[in-house]
Specification:
With 360 residues, this protein is an alpha/beta fold. It contains eleven helices and 18 strands.
């Protein structure tokens, strides 16, 4: 038996309880978690913004040590450090054939599987976003584990599995930020802080961080922000004033609210680029008129998992970490236990802090 954070039903409180895991079958790997990040997507799963089968063990950003492997697994062995990949690509669907593995049609098929059983009543549990990282141990398909690159602390490596791949990818793969360009990052949570660091790595000349909380300014500046704007109805005007009334070349929206997406778009220059990373609900409707779309010539694009290929991008991120350009610990504002996850959810709802990291 291992302890885990279980979502019994949509919008129900998480329950920290014991679960029984099966031994790894063919093509499966059992991992003892070292750490798991508490991501806003976990909150979106719990409140029904994103739909997955329940009851489920949540958590999708994690790293740990291989305990056992099933038949046919050859790329990792017991004792190896690994990073969890919650969106493994199938390699055969239309998106994968195009090389767009982040849009794989089958990436989340595993979320409907029976992952474990509650220890108290034997009821079936699903694995959230495939990997069920809010647990002391997990059993996942082999495609959900990537070998830990050399020189990366195992605990900090958990952040590579979602926040860093997403934030870095939004800047480098989606917005394609170039050296000397200007950028605004909306939302200074875990993904936003990763995006700020990615913008600094890209050589942006001006990096504007935007958040509703004045208390996050120091955190954002430490991640690379050159300017900090407290979100208000004047945000777009303030950002344009910082850039010679032109607007930034690119905006990265990490919030997922209609008003924020619209503000991010208005903050860019004519011909600018807005990348939407935040996951909003169906009720969040963003409107534009045809004339402004023509006149401004801006680009608005969605971004899934940072448009990243984890197998390709993880070694790149690791090199940035080893060479001191990327500071994983700068994303973490709180280190907690499993029992602290409900409070971490409350902090996200209130807009407090960066990434909370569950350390096992």
């Amino acid at each position: 038996m291992v302890r885990a954070a279980v979502l019994p039903a949509v919008s129900a409180p998480l329950e920290i309880t014991g679960i029984e895991l099966p031994e790894p079958g063919p093509g499966q790997v059992r991992v003892a978690l070292a750490a798991a990040g508490v991501c806003h997507s976990d909150l979106s799963l719990s409140d029904g913004t994103m739909r997955v089968p329940v009851p489920a063990v949540l958590g999708h950003e994690g790293a740990g040590t291989v305990v056992a492997v099933g038949e046919g697994v050859g790329h990792v062995a017991p004792g190896d450090g690994v990073v969890l990949n919650w969106a493994p690509s199938c390699g055969s669907c239309h998106a994968c054939a195009l090389g767009e593995v982040w849009l794989c049609a089958n990436a989340l098929n595993g979320a409907g599987a029976v992952h474990a059983r509650r220890a108290d009543d034997g009821s079936e549990l699903h694995p959230g976003l495939n990997v069920a990282a809010f647990a002391e141990e997990t059993v996942v398909p082999a495609g959900c584990v990537l070998p830990l690159p050399d020189g990366i602390p195992l605990t900090d490596a958990a952040l590579l599995g979602c926040a860093v791949l997403t934030g870095y990818g939004a800047v480098h793969h989606s917005a394609k930020l170039r050296e000397g360009e200007t950028v605004a990052v909306f939302g200074a949570g875990g993904v936003g802080l990763a995006a700020l660091q990615a913008a600094r790595i890209a050589g942006a000349s001006r990096i504007v961080a935007v958040d509703v909380s004045p208390q996050k300014e120091e955190l954002a500046r430490r991640a690379g922000a050159t300017d900090y704007v407290v979100a208000s109805e004047n945000t777009a005007r303030e950002i344009r004033a910082l850039t010679g009334k032109q607007g930034v070349d690119a905006a990265i929206e990490c919030v997922g609210r209609a008003a924020t997406i619209r503000t991010a778009w208005e903050s860019t220059r004519r011909g600018g680029r807005t990348t939407v990373v935040g996951i909003g609900g169906k009720d969040q409707q963003v409107t534009f008129n045809a004339l402004e779309l023509f006149h401004w010539g801006r680009t608005l694009s969605g971004c899934v998992y940072g448009n990243s290929d984890p197998a390709r991008d993880l070694p790149v991120l690791a090199a940035h970490v080893r060479e001191g350009r990327l500071d994983l610990s700068a994303l973490v504002t709180e280190r907690i236990t499993l029992d602290g996850i409900p409070a971490a959810f409350d902090n996200m709802i209130a807009g407090r802090g960066g990434r909370a990291l569950v350390v096992f």
